[in-house]
Amino acid sequence: MSCALLQGDTALVTGAAGGIGRAIATALAEEGARVFGADLAEADLSRPGEAVRLAQEAVRRLSKVSLFVHAASPRRQETLKALQISEAQWREMLEVNLNAGFLIAQALGNHMVENGIKGRMLVVTSLHAWSPRNLPHYSAAKAGQTMVVKELARALGPHGIRVNAIAPGAIPGGGFAAPQAMADKIALKRFGTPAEVAAMAVAVLSERFGAYVTGATIAVDGGIALHNWIEP
């Protein structure tokens, strides 16, 4: 029998109460990692200071952290457009996705470097990072995350620490309700599941399958990004 892919790893996963975050936390545990799954009950990442406090709490609970997955994001209303977003909505979305994600990664990156941990980080971004589809606050946050992943990969790569992102497509659940007609726009003609996104997360975080991958964003979208949005 082969060894579990993440045996001996310790992981902090944000947004772990439901949807993709919960699926990833479960998958990491099934592959042998000890997981601290955090959500609003542990930290409100929209508040100043909570990101660094959460990173410190993860180290305290786990003794060391070798894996970090940032899947936390506020719930969103799919039809909001640029002229409708309130300042509060804009700030909360960027605070949780972009600012908190970076600050936790920075804190844990320093922890990994100081302790000689060959860690791995993964950010759950979105196809919104590449193409505007309403939701300007969400799209801006996800685009920012994509660049932060590249900057972190450059900074941490010399220490043997890998940083990547996955961009899910239409994955119902966790606050996203997809109309059935959307499935017709997907090359594989079906919606994805949180478990399918989690499987890719495990692969990228593992050294067996992802050892030479860093600074990348991998789409897990069934081919929906192939759709020509200009067509009716």
Can you characterise this structure?
By secondary structure, the protein is an alpha/beta fold. 39% of the residues lie in helices and 13% in strands. It contains six helices and six strands; from the N terminus they run βαβαβαβαβααβ. The protein has a six-stranded parallel β-sheet, with helices on both faces. It is globular.
Question: What's the gist of this structure?
Answer:
The chain is an alpha/beta fold and 232 residues long. It has helices spanning 19-30, 50-62, 87-114, 136-156, 194-205, 207-210; strands at residues 10-14, 34-38, 67-70, 120-124, 162-168, 217-220.
Secondary structure layout plus pairing:
Elements: E1 10-14, H1 19-30, E2 34-38, H2 50-62, E3 67-70, H3 87-114, E4 120-124, H4 136-156, E5 162-168, H5 194-205, H6 207-210, E6 217-220
Parallel strand pairs: 1-2, 1-3, 3-4, 4-5, 5-6
Q: What is the chains' assembly state?
A: single chain
- Can you tell me the residue ranges where pLDDT is under 50 for at least 5 consecutive residues? none
N- to C-terminal separation? 51 Å
Proportion in helices: 25-40%
Structural class by sheet pairing and helices: alpha/beta
Task: Assign an overall shape.
Answer: globular
Write down the secondary-structure element order.
EHEHEHEHEHHE
Task: Give the number of DSSP strands.
Answer: 6
Tell me the fraction of residues in β-strands, as a range. Answer: 5-15%
Q: What tags apply to this protein structure?
A:
single chain; alpha/beta; 6 strands; 232 residues; 6 helices; globular; six-stranded parallel β-sheet
